[in-house]
Amino acid sequence: MSGWDELYPIPMLPSWVPGAAAGVVSLHLLQKLLFPYFWADLRYLLKVLVYGLTVEVYRLQGRIVTVLDKFVKLAEKQPHKPFLIYEGKVHTYQDVDRRSNRIAQVFLHHGVLKKGDTVALLMGNEPDFIHVWFGLAKLGCVVAFLNFNVRSRSLLHCVRSCEPKILVVGADLLGTLEEILPNLQKDVSVWIMTKDSTFPSVHTLLDKIEAASEDPVPVNRRSANNLKSTVLYIFTSGTTGLPKAAVISHMQVLKGAAGLWAFGATAEDVVYITLPLYHSAASLLGIGGCIELGATCVLKKKFSASQFWSDCKKYNVTVIQYIGELCRYLCSQPVKEGEKNHKVRLAIGNGVRIDVWREFLDRFGAVKICEFYGATEGNICFMNHTGKIGSVGRTNFFYKLFFPFDLIKYDFQKDEPIRNKHGWCEKVKKGEAGLLISKVNAKNPFFGYAGNKRHTEKKLLSEVFKKGDLYFNTGDLMVQDHENFLYFWDRIGDTFRWKGENVATTEVSDVIVMLDFIQEANVYGVSVPDHEGKAGMASLILKQNASLDLEQMYKQVVTYLPSYACPLFLRVQEKMEMTGTFKQQKFQLVDEGFNPSTITDPLYFLDHSKKAYVLLTKEVHEMILSGKIKL
């Protein structure tokens, strides 16, 4: 061996190399110990920065590139790639582009619409929702997405608040149109997605689309001068009153469309959308996200728990969108063989409970749950890019530099932020629930609501930490833990969430007090075991010498309210408790819930199978808790 050593001496490492290697290993271990999410945070932050810089470079070059512009380019680049799959029928990028051109041509030749005019869209999930949306956008119109669950008085309010020139209604919503037509403003032109009409002074659209040209309308009709200009109105049930039309700018659409990409989706993915398109989650994150990627979307008319996984297998779905309720419905389905036999790799959405999250992963396999937080009209968004169960996202020093926010102390009795003796708000400690507020500035603007300046002003907090500052009040309570993960805690104000929708308690109580035997109605949300959100409950005071007419009550709520807003429980009281500021007392009522064993007041339950309010007995209560009665 000594001869070989002399011929081929073993090279000696420099003396500093072992020390350097030990230092690198030590730094790695230290990083893992003290900053375990460093690389995940860095990757996410770089993605956000790259996207923001790309948009900014375009702007500095004088190029305003909208999501619609991107779609038109894709229709040229990949004309034959499927964009939409609906009920088995494939609509390619070129198909959707050409049909939306036809719709644009119809309204262009009709001659009523100018660039910047508003058109309200009342349609369910179907390809023509997207064709009409894109066609009107090609004319430079602002499109208002109407919630098809909203009825009568509330729907009329929505139409009036966005001041449309035209209302377009889907063929399956003519009954809803019939309800509001007599009271609709005469200057609103109504178009229906049929070939003929029995309504007087209502235009048909389907026949005109078929006869129209597929040629594109002039590009200058759709061109945007500013990314902050309005492109959509999306309705949201805020903390009080009737739905409000949130102003959505081109910039917000671009940010929403980047969501799937930020979570790791690619052009090869197939995205399954079962959420209603009138919601920003489906329209901006879903449809917009597919355009951002150049991917394919499978659109479902309505969510079906029994068909969900078979659809995923049939269409090779790789990305699904969810709300918390959707995941719970899937977990509540009878167990079948081969439930993990699918290609879904990402589930993107919000509102899933920790126990449902865990059950979903155990039962349906290695799906990455991508929870996020963001209000339709808000200027702040969190994304859980690490997969931490229960969290809506993570923050750090750098994220707060670009998107400044705080969690502040809140007085639940007075229903307002707590201010110290100097008049300033105070931040909560880590681990404590606080009201999420987001700084409003040039980079993170708040565009407000259409039709009512007062509603916009009510969502803003001024003089929060210093003179002249301005913050957006999300109305949501959040908790930030010691690892900087954020968790949704609850909503404040007169609102609660049920069936994935926000319910404004004042809207419900306004409908109930229209009944001649009701003196006062106090509406609130109560927790139901194994259910997401809170179920609606109304505490009622009857007029003197009047009796409760349950038949009339049922008829009233189902006629004037969306199904998710109808109170599931009624409680008849002798006297309405008030707070020190003369507001209806809700806290004790919420705590007491709907248990007939502990509540002496008469209680009633909305039994959907009987289409009536029935007496809430201990037996009925037990059946609700056990899941034998479906809510």
UniProtKB/TrEMBL annotation:
It is a multi-pass membrane protein. Keywords: Cell membrane, Fatty acid metabolism, Ligase, Lipid metabolism, Lipid transport, Membrane, Nucleotide-binding, Transmembrane, Transmembrane helix, Transport. InterPro entries: AMP-bd_C, AMP-bd_C_sf, AMP-binding_CS, AMP-dep_synth/lig_dom, ANL_N_sf. Coiled coil: none annotated. It holds the Pfam family AMP-binding_C. Its EC number is 6.2.1.3. It comes from the Eukaryota. Residues 507-583 form the AMP-binding enzyme C-terminal domain. Residues 75-395 form the AMP-dependent synthetase/ligase domain. It catalyses: tetracosanoate + ATP + CoA = tetracosanoyl-CoA + AMP + diphosphate; a long-chain fatty acid + ATP + CoA = a long-chain fatty acyl-CoA + AMP + diphosphate; a very long-chain fatty acid + ATP + CoA = a very long-chain fatty acyl-CoA + AMP + diphosphate. It is found in: Cell membrane. One of its GO terms (cellular component) is endoplasmic reticulum membrane. One of its GO terms (biological process) is long-chain fatty acid import into cell. One of its GO terms (molecular function) is long-chain fatty acid transmembrane transporter activity. It is an enzyme of class 6 (ligase). Belongs to the ATP-dependent AMP-binding enzyme family. This is long-chain-fatty-acid--CoA ligase.
